[in-house]
Specification:
InterPro entries: SBP, Sperm_putr-bd. Pfam families: SBP_bac_8. It comes from Brevibacillus invocatus. The protein is α/β, with parallel strands linked by helices and 359 residues long. The protein has 2 domains: 196 residues, Periplasmic binding protein-like II (D-Maltodextrin-Binding Protein, domain 2); 148 residues, Periplasmic binding protein-like II (D-Maltodextrin-Binding Protein, domain 2, 3-Layer(aba) Sandwich), CATH 3.40.190. 37% of the residues lie in helices and 17% in strands. It is built from 13 helices and 11 strands. Strands 1, 2, 3, 4, 5, 6, 7, 8, 9, 10 and 11 form an 11-stranded mixed sheet that branches. Strand 1, helix 2 and strand 2 form a beta-alpha-beta unit. The longest helix is centred in the first third of the chain and has 22 residues. The radius of gyration is 20 Å and the shape is globular.
Length: 359
């Protein structure tokens, strides 16, 4: 999903107008502070379908803050707009393997954890990670694997592994997230390599294998792949685990597969861009979302991996026990974290571009 920094920022020349437009549309002219010392507006930039509108309204009513909320559909889009839109966004979300590069480039600023006391609600296994020791720059929001599911009512072949996706009878039957790191990582794992592989020869091998898979893919969709699943347009999905869980609410026959190759995982985190005009208010918003009741409400609508241990007892057991979201302990031993791979991302860029251009 990540692109090389210079290349992405170069691409953002095209996005400048969009970023400026977003800034103009999201900013208001209201000034001053609320009774509790917060600014009267906050500009939030988040993934689409990732935060219920009711939660935003709740914060607005509780604190007297107008939240100007806009969305993106990829880390690339987020990075491009934050790169050229200094001062436009007060809060955004970035995947864990983005945190160190963004910090090194001066794109995000340190947090004041004194303003985020609900940080204490986060489970130990999700904080103080290698990508941000001490959570100086980031607070985990929600995590996900890209999970594998299929509708056994509509296809005759059984699916037990990632390798089964190449079966010829699955032509135009698969939806996948539009994410180069997860998808190329999956292909690398079917070849017996790490999903974070950086060897050019192995990535070329992965490219050739991915090209062989393309006839089976109906769509790449990171926004709402469950729609294709529920509508019956596809019968196999390699998508965010939460999307499988949401599809199962309407099509319970969709089965989740725990592939023998293992899956990959990443976490999305709140970060405050450099130049944010309403930093304290952004921290108050993070703190609000970490309230157990609020965090549980978010998970009910968007059931990704929730790192808030205080919220877990309030989340439906159906969600907490769904293996599309929360993998069994034995499976977690096989899970590989998506890592920052430095300049090697240029290889992924090239491979992904060549694969996508073959469509």
């Amino acid at each position: 999903m990540v692109k090389s920094w210079k290349k992405t920022i170069a691409y953002s020349v095209v996005a400048v107008a969009l970023a400026v437009t977003a800034g103009c549309s999201s900013s208001s002219t209201s000034g001053g502070t609320t009774a509790d010392g917060l600014d009267k507006e906050l500009n939030v930039f988040n993934w689409s379908e990732y935060l219920p509108e009711a939660v935003i309204k709740n914060f607005e009513e509780k604190h007297g803050v107008k939240v100007n909320y806009s969305t993106f559909s990829s880390n690339e889009e987020m990075l491009a707009k934050v790169s050229v839109g200094k001062g436009i966004y007060d809060l955004t979300v970035a995947s864990d393997y983005y945190i160190q590069p963004m910090a090194k480039e001066g794109m995000i600023q340190p947090l004041d954890l004194n303003n985020i006391p609900n940080y204490k609600n986060l489970a130990a296994e999700y904080i103080n990670k290698d990508h941000d020791p001490g959570n100086q720059y980031s607070i985990p929001y929600m995590g996900n694997t890209v999970s594998l599911g299929y509708n056994p009512d509509n296809i005759k072949t059984e699916i037990t592994s990632l390798a089964d996706l190449w079966k010829p009878e699955l032509q135009r039957q698969i939806v996948m997230v539009d994410d180069q790191r997860f998808i190329l990582g999956m292909v690398l794992k079917t070849l017996g390599y790490s999903g974070n592989e950086t060897d050019p020869a192995k990535l070329e091998e992965a490219k050739q294998k991915m090209l062989a898979l393309m006839p089976n893919i109906k769509a790449f969709d990171s926004d709402s792949p469950k729609t294709l699943m529920v509508n019956g347009e596809v019968n196999v999905a390699f998508v965010w685990g939460a999307e499988i869980a949401l599809a199962q609410r309407e099509k319970p026959q969709f089965k989740t597969v725990l592939p023998k190759e293992g899956l990959m995982i990443s976490f999305d985190n709140f970060v405050i861009p450099a130049g944010a005009k309403h930093k304290k208010t952004a921290e108050a918003f993070i703190n609000f979302l970490l309230e157990p009741e609020i965090s549980a409400e978010i998970s009910q609508s968007f059931p990704y991996i929730n790192p808030n241990k205080a919220a877990h007892p309030m989340i439906d057991k159906e969600i907490m026990s769904n293996i599309a979201i929360y993998l069994p302990e034995e499976e977690m031993k096989k899970v590989e974290t998506v890592m920052d791979i430095g300049d090697a991302i240029k290889l992924y860029d090239r491979v992904w571009s060549e694969v996508k251009s073959s469509q």
